[in-house]
Description:
The protein is an alpha/beta fold. 47% of the residues lie in helices and 17% in strands. The protein has one domain: Rossmann fold. The protein has helices at 10-20, 50-58, 81-89, 100-110, 114-119, 129-139, 144-158, 173-192, and strands spanning 2-3, 24-26, 30-31, 46-47, 62-67, 76-80, 93-95, 97-98, 123-126, 166-169. The longest helix has 20 residues, at 173-192.
Amino acid sequence: MIAGPAGSGKSTLCDRLVTEAPEFSRVVTTTTRPPREGEVNGVHYHFFAPDEFERRVAAGEFLEWAQVHGNNRFRMYGTLRSSVLEPLAQGRSLVMSIDVQGVESIRRAARADERLQRALTTVFIRVDRDRLVARMRARATEGEEEIACRMKTAEAELREASKFDFIIESRTRDEDFHALEQIVAEARRRASCPQ
C-alpha cells in the first residue's frame, strides 16, 4: 500500500510499478467523486453514486472506506474486499494508492486475515509543503480553496509517516520510483526469510 498526501505522486508510482513490473496489479479503489478527464470506470476507480456506495458499506463489502476532505458525502473513497482478497487468493502481487485512514483500517483487517497480513507492506511518501502545493497547482484539477483544504489534511497525514514500514522522501518521479523498487526488493527478501 502506498500512502501520502494529495499531490505526493502515489498514483503515479502505482501506475509505473504496474507498467514496469507486470507481476503487480493495481487495486482499483472506489469513489463517489465524479471522474476527472481521462479517468475510466473500473480502471482508475470504481465510480459509484453515493447511494450505491452507502448500500455497499451497509452490506459490509468494503475493507476500508472514509469520507475525505470534509463531510461532503459525495467525496467518499474506499476499497472493496473483493478488489483485494480475490486477487490475493489467486497469488497475485498488488499495489494500491490509499489514504492514511485507509491504511489503518486495512491494518486492522489484516489482524484477522493471515493472507492479508503476509501480503501487507506499507509505504509513505513524504513531501515538503512547498513541493506539495506546487504539484497540486500543476495538476490544475483543484482550486485554491480545495488546495488549502487538502493541505490541512496533508499536515495531519505527514504526522503519521512513522507508522509505515517504509518512507520515501519524495524528490523526482524517477528517484521516487527507484526508492520504491528498492522497497519492493526488500519486502520480497523479508517475505522469503523464515520467521
